[in-house]
Amino acid sequence: MHVLKSVGVMSVAKMMGILYGCLGLIFIPFFLIFAMAGTLAGQKEVPFAGVIGIVLAVAMPVLYGVMGFVTGAIGAALYNLLAKWLGGFELELEIRPAGVTAPYPLIPPPTPVTN
Fold first, then answer.
1. Would you tell me which of 6, 41, 61, 104 could form a disulfide with 24, CB atoms 3.0–4.6 Å apart?
2. Using CA atoms, how far apart are residues 61 and 68, in angstroms rounded to an integer?
3. pLDDT value at position 108?
4. Each residue's pLDDT tens digit, 20-48
5. Three-state DSSP string of 24-57
6. d(Cα 16, Cα 67) in Å, to the nearest integer?
7. Residue 32 · residue 50 · CB < 8 Å
């Protein structure tokens, strides 16, 4: 068994920031639909509805990325602190021979043809 005693706070924060930013991309179509619906609703009720929806569509991945970076950094720092007290994650690692990258063959072997 191997024990993961600490993680790089900045490396976790960067990865989480990118992952959350990518998740924020999921919301772009919804905000663009809301922007179009706001524009069609009429300019008298909400004059900037379309613009607000477009701004939110652009800002959502950025805001999610920032939130992911901050929560990733906090989570990694907390993990490092708790791992000192509790011992960290236990990992079982397997050493594979060079050239083997998958636990199963990527291209299955041909099946014998029987007549």
1. 61
2. 10
3. 65
4. 999 989 888 888 887 777 777 666 666 67
5. HHHHHHHHHHHHHHHHHHCCCCCCCHHHHHHHHH
6. 9
7. no
If you search the block for the tokens 């960067």, which residue do you land on? 14
Query: Would you state the structure tokens that stand for residue 33, as one six-digit string?
Result: 């639909």
- Give 50-106 pLDDT, tens digit per residue: 777 788 888 889 999 999 999 999 999 999 999 999 988 888 887 777 766 666 666
Structure confidence at residue 113 (pLDDT): 79
Q: Please give the single-letter amino acid code of residue 62.
A: V
Measured between alpha carbons, how far is residue 73 from residues 8, 15, 24, 78 in Å? 9, 10, 18, 9
Contact indicator for 38, 53 with CB cutoff of 8 Å: yes
